[in-house]
Amino acid sequence: MVFFLKKEINQKLQKLLLGFASGVMIAASIWSLLQPAIESYDDGVKKWLIPALGFLFGMLFLFLLDILIPHMHIDKQEEGINNNKISKRLKMFLAVTIHNIPEGLAVGVMIAGCINNNISQEAMLALSIGIAIQNFPEGAIISMPLKEEGLSKAKAFLYGFLSGVVEPLAAIVAILLTYFINTILAITLAFAAGAMIYVVVEELIPEANTGKHSNLATLGLAVGFVLMMILDIAL
To answer: Which of 9, 39, 128, 221 is most buried when burial is the number of CB atoms within 10 A of its CB?
Structure first.
């Protein structure tokens, strides 16, 4: 996206993109991850306990990454352990890298479930398409601010690309773990959902509602949510 957009990303467009990514991730967390986790059990305490625990563990995992790894948000607000030796550019890169981990986990868990015949190929494909689509706005959101910091388009693209490499790596870890321990599929599905919802609530929605044009973010969220819902149901 950095090669096609102007010098800096338009604020209205940024709000739309943030909202859109939020909508996709919320819908994917509900229909593609939590619902299959709940449906893994016929009845009893496990039907609600395992998904609930997995969801909370996923939230806690991202919370710990957030407070331990130094990073910087779009609004220049810094979080994590204070480290002045790390440049602003690297902190911005780390922020997106941290929040790409849940998306990789989600796709990996779905692939493992598909391999073990617990999840249909169509459901796995729907989630993968949804995550892929919302990676477009995420790529723009990380690359354009880096370009504004003085990086060339090529270097800004490289940073954006590298921040996304964590997704297939996280997916591989999730595939191996869930494939060899098939009994933990439900909790890993819910774990990925919790991690994604953490990103939405902690990062995407607050940034989308900062300053003017927050209503555009709400519209973007609606479009992203409905698109992911349709993908999941239609496929």
So the answer is: 221
